[in-house]
Amino acid sequence: MGEATRHSVSVDGHRLSCLDFGGEGRPLLALHGHFDEGRTFAALARDLAPDWRVLALDQRGHGRSERAADYSREGYVGDAAAVLAHFGVTDAVVLGHSLGGINAYQLAARHPDLVRALVVVEIGAEVDGDLSFCLAWPERAPTREAFEDALGDSAYYLAHAIREYPDGWGLTFAPQDMAMSQEQANGDHWDDWLSSECPALLIHGTRSGVLSCRQAEDMVARRPRTQLVELPTGHTVHDTDPVGFAAAVVKFLGGL
Q: What does residue 123 show for φ and ψ, rounded to 5 degrees?
C-alpha cells in the first residue's frame, strides 16, 4: 500500500479532509474520536489491505478539516454520509472509535442503505462525558517544547495533534469545540443503537473509564447480530493494542 491520498469534501459550506488509503478492496469508512484525526487509522489500513480500502475522515473541527458552526448529531452524521457520496460508496463498513462510534451507529440508524456493517469501538448507547478540562490547555506557544511543557501530562496523549502555525505552536483543534461536541454527544442513544439491523462488532477495552463492562454486555445482548470483543486496554484500544485490535477487526470482516 502506498501513501494515502488526501481529498477535500465540501459539506454545507465547510470543508472536510479525508484520507483515502486506496486499493481495489471493499470500502471501510473510519471515524476517529475527540482530539484525534483520520491518520490514527493508518496502521489498521495497512493491516486490512488489499482486501479493504480505508477512507479515514478528519471529522469536523479535527485535523485538517475546518471548524464548523455546530457539532450536532445531525452535523456529524451528515458529514459521514456526504463523504461516502463523494467517493460514490453506497455499501460501506463503518468503523468508529468513541465519538466516531456514536456517529457510526447513528449513520447506520438514519441511513441504513449506506452501511453494510458496523465496528464500534469503546463507546456506549448511553453517553455522559465531560471534556471541559481541555479548556485549560494553552492556545499557542513559541516552540513545540514550550507548548508541550504547558500541556503537562496531557502532552503525551496529544503529540499527534500538535502543529506549527504562523503565530506559534498549537493544537489541530479548538478545545472549546471539543467541549461543545462532547456536550452534544451526551445522551441516551439506545434507539439509534437498536434500530439498525446490519452485523456489528463492539470492541471494549476492559480497563476503560468510558464504556463499562456491564453496558458493553447489555449492548450486545439487546442487539441481534452483534459480537463483543474485549481487550485488556483502556479507552484508546487501537493505539494501546494495535495487533489485538486489528486481529479482531480482520476476523469480523472476514465473516461478512
A: -155, 150
